[in-house]
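Quick one: structure tokens for this chain, please?
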Amino acid sequence: MNGSHRTQTMGGPGIAPGSHPVHRAPLARVTRAALATALATLLAVVGMAGLMPASAAAVVPVVTSPSATPDAPEGGSELQPVVVVMDYSSSMLQADADEDGTTRLEAAEAATLNLIDKAPDGADLGVVVYGANTVEDCADIETVQSVAPLKKGDLKKKIEALNAVGETPIGASLLHAADELKDHDGEKSIILVSDGEENCSQPPACEAAQDLADRGIDLTVHTIGFKVNDQARDELTCVAEATGGTYVQAENAEELESRLETKTVRAFQGYVPQGTPVTGGETLHASPQLAPGQYLDKYEKGGSKIHADDGTLKFYNLGTIQPGERAHFSALLIPDQSAPAERGASYAGLKVELVNGQGVSCSSIDSAYRGDDDGGRPIAGYVRSKDYAQESSERCYSDGSGQLYAKVMRTSNRQSDLALPVELKYVLEPAVDESSLDTPASEAEPVQSVTLSDAPQAIAGGGSFNDATEVDSGTVLTDSTMPMESRYYRIHVGYGQRLNVRASQANVDDAGPDGIHVDVYSAVRSPVRTVGDDLLYRSGTGETATQSMRVPVSQSNRDGSVGSDAYLAGDYYVVVSARKWTGDRNREPYPYDLALEVTGEEQDGPMVADPGLGQNPSTVQDGQETQSPDDGTDQSAQPTEGAGQESEAPVAGAGGNDAAAPGDGEPQAASSVRDSAPLPWFLGGLAGSALLGGVLVALLTRRGPAAAGGASGVAHTGPTAPMGHPGDSRGTLINGQPQPPYPNSSPQNPYGQEGPQR
């Protein structure tokens, strides 16, 4: 075994033996184009493609990526149905929407078409218009699109054919729109856009809104005033406040487009959890096996009191890792964001840890807590495995198996009786040729000023990590956040680069929150420590808070005292959350400007070591044939194309993972596990994820026999993996069946009589 043989840079393409490293072009020119070509399913999810050595001969099975649109567990935030009510009265023909003489009708049409383009896939959207058909007719109210998943092309044609000729029956239109939503349970919204006040009063607008509020049907009406006078503004504000909604004003075509998109997409949102459905095990060795990817579980209860560690506990089998590899695992708890809460009354939390088969800790323990006054700030726990060297002194790896499990507990008492979704992400990092690393940073660099001076662009952030809005370095944007929500942006940060963020207050005089948090997360959802200010308090328009990553991204910092939380290149996340709010203003948004700048020249990453480095020669030999289990039911969980759909990919078997990266629509080849190049996200750093609802995924493992049998709706088809790895000899799967090694293991004592070794 040649442990120093280089096959691939972590920032560049695969390298055949004997060739020279290939410097990669910037991500936008190479990586994204390659990913788009490689995956026909890009709309659902972006999977990362790797390059195999030219000499590869044996077929490696392809494992599909996690679904981008699975059903959320009960208790989580799903896409809410929304009806947009648009004003097509004759006043919309006024040509004052901008300096070029655009009519209000043209501006409204453009804003609606933009909204249709931006609506999330699968969203239930209805469109109602008034005044589009008949002069002086207060009954001229038309449903253009019933509340149902969009057929975007058809709806656009209908919108483009509308005229503005009639009256302004706001009250009757609200009742009409509510009737369109009558068959939809749970939270729902109406977005009303008008350029004037009610002139029909059948019934008056405010009375209609109060009637809807009194029905108790979980309906919120948000209103947008387009170039309105004071009387219309008061009326639209009354409509919104009656139902617990918000009013905003648009003075021109650009503002109307931004306001309509933001209001409607926000009404759809909340944090929409995504991932392949999985159910964690109640005990260590009865846990499902996960390939690298994104998953979604449901945790039934929280703790009995603040910070109590007695909520739902679950385990996940991550398979085996080899010396030099590192497992990254994150868990994100998603509270019900629609549920009101008093400030400081309770906390929600998660505790995350990696352990081996005896329960010995293989990571630090990360506990993430958020109080009610933290709004929608992410409750994200992240851990990574300890260093696994060839001759490891870590007790975690003392048995030489490299077997890892994730242990996740829901803690604290916020919404403790409500089953909540938990989003899980598992990334496996390949071994690095340490001779290609430099000396780690010893101290943080000073905060760097962000001098961008362009006028802010109206850019709406996403509602989750999964649909974070992609922005480029040099972007200056304006947006707002509400209590109990966060706004997510993603930006590429390469090796040798540093992210700098400046947050500025817009007009905050009427803002509900007392301030905002601006948090940075790495490509593997590790919270990133920064220098500078990450809090912006409401103290007047123009106040700023600037922060920078402590040092540029470098693999050399992975075990250092500075920068170990941000040593991987890829798409980083900037998350803006409302900090606190006062009870009488908790429906008002907090407007802000955000400037994002990535400094430093992007560099190639370090060399990836020979994939065979660290394999146990006593258990894995070149040319070894994989033995599939003869029978039994497979307990493993593989990412699938969609929730509840069957996958054509083989499933990881006894104690190992055999996932490979999707290529150009064809299975890739390798002569053996030892010869196959490390795959995925190092093609361009941990790169991005997200078309709408996209999921960051790394299919990095390539060991383990393919399991026979089937469970959880997964079809076991396709070629057998070359080269096996026995993996977990203490249980999990033997002939497809879990084999707990400890007697009397139970949810109360997951490790059985022997208990964990600490």
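The chain has seven helices and 28 strands.
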